Amino acid sequence: MKKNLWNLLTVALFALILLAVPIYWLCAPEKTFSDAERRYLREAPKLEEQKLSDWSFDDRTEGYLADQMPLRNALVGVNAYATLLSGRQVSADIYMDRDGYLVEAPVDFVETELQTRLDRIAELGETTGLVPRLLIVPSTGYVRNERLPQSLAALYRDADALKQIEQTQGVSLVPIADRFREEGQDWYYRTDHHWTADGAFAAYEAYLHAAGHAPLSRDAFYHHTVKGYVGSTRSRAALWLAKPDTLIIDEPIGCEVAVSFSDDEQTYTSLFFYEHLKEYDWYPLFLDGNHPITVIENRSATENAPTLLMVKDSFGNTLAPLLVPSYKTIVMVDPRYCKQSVSALATEYGAAELLFCYSLERIATDLNLKLLK
After folding, report:
1. Can you tell me the mean pLDDT for 238-262?
2. 347 pLDDT more than 90
3. How many Å separate Cα 202 from the centre of its chain?
4. What gap in Å lies between CA 227 and CA 246, rounded to an integer?
């Protein structure tokens, strides 16, 4: 009797689970965005005859239901850790090294494509009459090479790409890779691909030395600390137990600034936008994230202070605040969103220096760099 009752309860529980999932899909409010994964979820597909015939409706329905799955975050996390513990993560896009850092897969770049971008940058230098200085951030995996499985570590080709950049006529590579490998094992966030405040400061020193300026000491900056930062790399890896990071924000002392954006009519008096700490992504607290054109005026600068034109990806957002005391104006251009002529901007603002601040991955793969003018 007890055995029959137990079997009945088991069958009833299994049937309840089978019914609960479709009921949840039908009754639960539809989610449109995942804060944990930092992406928009797939929408419910519309029934169309053409999509039925080519099976795309089935694929879109499957993707939609997977995104709306009950306990999705927990299930995705379990799968990610199962992949990690079974050793299969070497072939994944993001790997956790021996110290718990989340490391992106090696950049798969093509030498001829990289050279096309470099030649375009050199041509821009000729047009503006300025030497393009390239501050290229090496990948986390290249810097932390010794903490990765040998089979994965051997795939990082940063040294080849940096050598190609160094040998390109018409551009000047700012040397930071060797120092990063020697001293900068912890100059990247554990949960994000960006450099930390220490990494940005090392790059700041390297650039100003290359440009003929004297960098300030770290004491010339206020240091604000914010704990609990979780970067985009953890969101994509779904390794939810990875230890959060601490953000250190270096603010120049004694600099009165005016910050404006090409897609915003307002002018701001701070380099940092702390309201982003209330959102899922904290990184835009640096200069409000990415804009087509950002102009920083240092109203405390001397009359003869130069103007810097910086073509950049998101790494430039943390570098620029450090550079503010050394310049009268910093004009930042993000080619992913800005289609204006960079050479025209150099003339308009009277730029005396031209800096490209890019991660190695971005400069090797960004198609927008081919379109610079």
Report:
1. 92
2. yes
3. 18
4. 4
Q: What ranges make up the beta strands (E) of the chain? A: 33-34, 39-40, 94-96, 102-104, 132-137, 172-173, 221-229, 245-252, 257-261, 264-268, 293-298, 307-312, 329-333, 353-359
CA distance 361 to 106: 8
**3-class secondary-structure state, position 277:** helix
Give me the amino acid identity at 27: C
| Contact (CB, 8 A) for 102 and 191 | yes
Token pair of 85, please? 């513990």
For the cut 80, the answer to whether the pLDDT of residue 227 exceeds it is yes
CA distances to 46, 218, 340 from 312, rounded to whole Å, are 40, 23, 14
- What's the rounded mean pLDDT across residues 208-221? 96
Least trusted range by pLDDT, from 23-27, 81-85, 150-154, 289-293: 23-27
pTM comes to 0.85
Q: Of 58-72, 167-181, 312-326, 332-346, where does mean pLDDT reach its minimum?
A: 58-72
| 314 CB-near residues (< 8 Å, 6+ apart) | 194, 283, 289, 290
Structure confidence at residue 271 as a pLDDT band (50, 70, 90): very high
- Sequence-separated (6 or more) residues with CB below 8 Å from residue 325: 216, 220, 252, 254, 255, 298, 300, 301
Residue 164: DSSP 8-state: H
Say if CB 276 and CB 284 are below 8 A apart: yes
The residue assigned the tokens 């110290």 is: 99
The better pLDDT of the pair 192, 6 is held by: 192
Closest CA to 326 of 211, 184, 178: 211
Q: How far apart are CA 118 and CA 279, in angstroms?
A: 37
- Sign for the CA dihedral angle at 240, 242, 248, 249 comes to negative
pLDDT band for 32, please (50, 70, 90 cuts). low
CA distances from 310 to 36, 55, 250, 332, 358 (A): 32, 47, 19, 5, 10
